[in-house]
Amino acid sequence: MPTIRYLVLGLTTRCNLSCAYCYHAGLERGMDMSPEVARTALDLVALGEGPLHVQLSGGEPTLAREMVRYVVAEIRRLKRPCTVGIQTNATLLDEDLVRFLGEHGVQVGVSLDGPPAIQQRLRGEADKALLGLTLLEKMGVPFRVTTVVGSENCGQLSRLGLMLAGFRCARGIGLDLLVARGGGCSGGMELPDPRILEQEVGSLVRLLAAVNGRRSVPLRLRELDLVGKALSGKRGKGWFCHACLGESLAVHPDGRLYPCGQTLGDDRFEAGSLSHPRLSRLRWNDPRPLGSPDCPGCPLEGSCPGECPSRLYYNRSSRPDLACAVYRGCLAALEGEGRQAVSL
């Protein structure tokens, strides 16, 4: 059995929002993970060696808050060193849950796609999401933001960075390029223009450099950190994620298994179930390197962070070069401002 280092528990298929591009759109709704399924999943990965990260996902996992508490408690019995995180839209956070997350060291990720007007258009309930951020700030719980980048918000990334600069507990931004699956391929939002994307990522990097000069804890951009590691030779073998190595496991509420959260519920990637696992199917046999015509001579040639294999699979008929645009934006900002100025 491969050693699983990244475990995604889909605690529920329920969600209180209807995001325009949701890649789970059209899949089964209204199913929650049982304690038995969660415990069996944890038992399956408990025998591995080395550190393990458990990510609580959905749907909207805070709709199954008793399962959040249960899983966090169960993780304590694992003998492996383990971290736990939750990805939430933040609209249902209250003081009791935020206190619990903070006291138990749960890494909080918030799905936020832009300033309020953009957030309202793409996800809805923007006012409640901002209240959730404010509550995290008030209670001193650090959080990171994940932004799905498409045509609607591609030109607003620096405005998002400026908004987050006012939150002392904000720790970082990660850019998830739109996936052409579910709502992402039904016209809810289009893939971004690579030229606009490159320019806006560069603007965001420069903005964060200026903002971080006034912050005690920097607001980091995940993609800039990846580029920095690649340029310094610390990136390793260039695998984009644990799924490329068969070290990632995503568990559906009913116990079915998949390589990652993005493939959850897609029968083409099912790797059996908790009762009959087929873990040999977890590894992407084709990690699909970017292979852009611009690779020769690129400063990242040979050490490029690469791209999400599932995203390349789902977007294969459209824009395979969008990750390149993100990395070029980071590189251009580095060259223009100097590496020290942007605080790698």
TrEMBL record:
It comes from the Bacteria. GO terms for molecular function: 4 iron, 4 sulfur cluster binding; metal ion binding; oxidoreductase activity. Its cofactor is [4Fe-4S] cluster. The keyword S-adenosyl-L-methionine applies. InterPro entries: 4Fe4S-binding_SPASM_dom, Aldolase_TIM, MoaA_NifB_PqqE_Fe-S-bd_CS, rSAM, rSAM_sf, Sulphatase_maturase_rSAM. Keywords: 4Fe-4S, Iron, Iron-sulfur, Metal-binding, S-adenosyl-L-methionine. Residues 1-220 form the Radical SAM core domain. It holds the Pfam family Radical_SAM. PROSITE patterns: MOAA_NIFB_PQQE, RADICAL_SAM. The keyword Chaperone does not apply. Belongs to the radical SAM superfamily. Anaerobic sulfatase-maturating enzyme family. This is Radical SAM domain protein.
